[in-house]
Each structure stands twice: as structure tokens, then as C-alpha cells.
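Q: Here's a chain of 295 amino acids. Please give me its 3D structure as C-alpha cells.
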Amino acid sequence: GGGEWQRWRFVNAISHAFLNISIVDKRGDSACEMYEIAADGVYYGSPRQSSHVFVTLGGRKDVLIKCPDSGWFTMYSTQAADSVVDFSDPNEFGGSLGNVRVYASDDDRSSVNVAAISLPGTGLYDRSFIDSHVDVEYSLILSDYKDTPTEWFTMNGVVYNSLIGHRIALNSLQEWDIKHKFETSDSDETNHNWHLHTHHFQIAYTSDPRGHTTDYQIGDWRDTINVPLGGSIKVRFKAENYAGYLLHHCHVFNHETAGLKQLVSVVNCSDDRIYNELKKYADSFGMDITICSDA
């Protein structure tokens, strides 16, 4: 109904397109108020007003929406002037996502100050790692494979091969520097995002050489994030409560399936039997795995 606040959740389940969502009238003007309140299931500190809601591939956004007038409106995904991405692989989906019917209503809540609303706590994510001591730093480079005709992608120069590509210690504070590196002539037209399974991460730093706006703030918690074209992000997280395999990857479908992912082993260093056997096995190959000294 007109004047009614509703909570919507946008989920980008598209295989090869970003979403930049707005609700417009017949003139193409913004028709409804929108406030983002959460991303990837974690609340922000306060609502954030926006005329467009950007949702990366695999991402989720919770939004408060109010359309003051009755009538038919269109939900579009389009490239805005302050678009987060502006290139071709992939681009933002451009077109209609559906129609929105708003009925006349006496339930006018225009007096509600949404910007001042206190959002629920975020539980585990009420804490911050921004000023914490980092146990381990790890650099991760997302790139095209240099053998261009194959159209494979790499993480740290390796096309995914189902083998463990990295090991971390359980309960150690990780800082990962995730970079988009140009390796081929087509790299500057290729956009990646990054998704971490099992755990959310906190955004600690971002560098975007294009100077574009992003859809996140330093300190936000996400499990999926856009990596700036030719730039980087730094994220911090603890692998807690679970020792075993951990997958991370680009959420652009044809990039992931073409090798842009990595399998990580989370090692419980308090279990001497498992770690000692792992170290013995690694030593037989001449490998040095001293990760438990960082825990």
C-alpha cells in the first residue's frame, strides 16, 4: 500500500550479471524511498539511503522500501551514473525486473524517520577486527591465464585443480589482500568478485584506481564482495569452530568454472596428532608448513 514500509530481500542468483536496482515511474524518475539495512545477512550499523541498490553476483541485500503513491511502477536494473562497474565481462543487467503495483492506502507512515531507526544487533559480527593484531597476511591475485586462447582464470597463477592451494590455522586472524591483476589484453574488461564459504569477513581496506563508489564501507561484514577493476581489497576474518576444507572463488559463473577458485585447509593446531602427521607428510615432499606457529 502507498505510504507503507516493507522489507525486501534482493538476491542476485544470475550467473553472469550484476544488479543495480531502482524503482521508477513512467517518466523514469525514482518512485520509492529505499534504505539498505543489511548485506549478506549482516545488519549495518544504521540504514543507508540509496536510489539504486547494487547487488553483486551471489550477494544479498535487505532493503526498506516505501512507495508514497498508488499506481504501477517498474523495477529496473540499470547502469547509474555512479555505477560500481562499467565494463563488459560481466556488466550490470540492463532491463526490467518486474512490475510493482502499489494500492491506495490510509497507512501513511511518512513521519517515520527511517535514518534514525536502531537496527538489531549483529551477534558474532558486533565485534571488529579493524584495529586488531593480524596473525597472518596472505596475498591473493585474481587474473586471466596468460595462455589467452584457453580462456582460463587463475588464483596466484594456478588454475583450480582440486588440490589444497593454501593452509591456515584454526582461530588465527587472517588478513587477505585480494588483487585484480591484468595479465592479458582483455583483463581490463574483466570484472571479478570474491566469495568466501563458511565465514563472513570484515572489509579493512579498498583501492579502486577508477575512483568509483563502492557498495560497501570499511568495517562492513560480507561473504561476497566486488573486487575493483585493477584494484584490491583487504579483508579480515577468523576461521572459527570448523577445521577442514574451505572454498573461496569468484562468483561469476564462467570465471569460477574456468578455474578461478582455491581450496584451503583449516588446520586445528591444538590436535597434535593431526598436525604432526600433516607436517611429517609435508616434510617428505620438502614442504615447510609452519602455520601453527601463527595460531
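Q: Can you summarize the key feature?
A: The chain has a mean pLDDT of 86.
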